[in-house]
């Protein structure tokens, strides 16, 4: 097994041009700090995520898959605010620096960085149990970031893409690690909804990305906005792949409480549904009305006319 020193490793694997497809930097990795210029009349959007081996990913997952998943999850937070991704910092702790592993990690990171047009600005490299922290930075016109707190009573609640695939993919990857099937791919290579997030600026009243399960995450919008919601499980967008793999009722449970689809959940004034449907068509991204907000606090889940039922819980660390 070939290993290498810290500075060689940083230079070879974290200071490659392939890792800088985003907004140019006044000064990139290599000095004590990076220097970054936010475009005029924009605010910096910044979000941090830590991914711990055995908690957020399997230790024996392919290194390129780990990298792609971690960066996608981080960029998804920028998408949810309507921000344009620009830069990220990477703090990586690993037990050893084997060429094969770091090379694969760097390849996966570059692939995801390119698909999100985000540049590696710096970071930290240390030895210890495998853990990855990413600080994703983007920019958004002043006053246009989409927060969680603006939902209005009577808005429709919409989600992008399909839900539950990643939760099913996680189960599949626990059994056989390859990750080659479409559901597993949704787990290790989710697509941050960057363009959609930007389109939703000045349209959506609230938005977030689904990382801990639809009902739990929607709850954050409802609490922040001071309203309630009624959802109908018959409207949940479920993929053909998911329905081929599990029963409809299992698929609905995954969609309601399975995390990490990294789709956007947003509230929209009902008068903008037609615009959303036109966007959905022209960009080939499913956008589905799953319910509406109401004055009655709490989240109620209906099956057609039956209900309301207590929704299943999402993921919580503690
Ligand atoms: P310092 O000791 O001054 O904090 P380091 O020796 O930790 O700096 O890092 C040297 C340079 O390499 C810095 O510019 C830092 O941002 C960059 N760097 C370190 N680790 C990484 C990494 N994993 N990815 C990208 N850049 C990194
Ligand atoms: Mg220094």
Key terms for this structure?
318 residues; alpha+beta; 60s Ribosomal Protein L30, Chain: A; 2 domains; seven-stranded mixed beta sheet; four-stranded mixed beta sheet; binds adenosine-5'-diphosphate; binds magnesium ion
In short:
The chain is an alpha+beta fold. It has helices at 6-14, 63-81, 99-116, 165-175, 182-188, 194-199, 214-225, 240-245, 248-257, 273-283, and strands spanning 42-52, 84-94, 119-127, 131-141, 156-160, 206-209, 228-232, 264-268, 287-294, 298-303, 306-309. It folds into two domains: 6-141, 2-Layer Sandwich (60s Ribosomal Protein L30, Chain: A), CATH 3.30.1330.10; 156-309, PurM-like C-terminal domain (Phosphoribosyl-aminoimidazole Synthetase, Chain A, domain 2).
Strand order of the largest sheet: 6-8-5-9-7-10-11
Listed once per kind, the bound small molecules are: adenosine-5'-diphosphate, magnesium ion
Tally of strands: 11
* Secondary structure tally, helices: 10
Spatial separation of the terminal alpha carbons = 38 Å
The appropriate CATH architecture of the largest domain is Alpha-Beta Complex
Spans of at least 5 consecutive residues whose pLDDT stays below 50 are none
> Mean pLDDT, nearest integer?
95
CATH fold annotation of the largest domain: Phosphoribosyl-aminoimidazole Synthetase, Chain A, domain 2
Overall 3D form: globular
Helical residue percent band: 25-40%
Q: Helix/strand-derived class?
A: alpha+beta
Q: What is the helix/strand order? A: HEHEHEEEHHHEHEHHEHEEE
Provide the number of structural domains.
2
Q: What is the CATH homology-level superfamily of the largest domain?
A: PurM-like C-terminal domain
Largest sheet: 7 strands, mixed
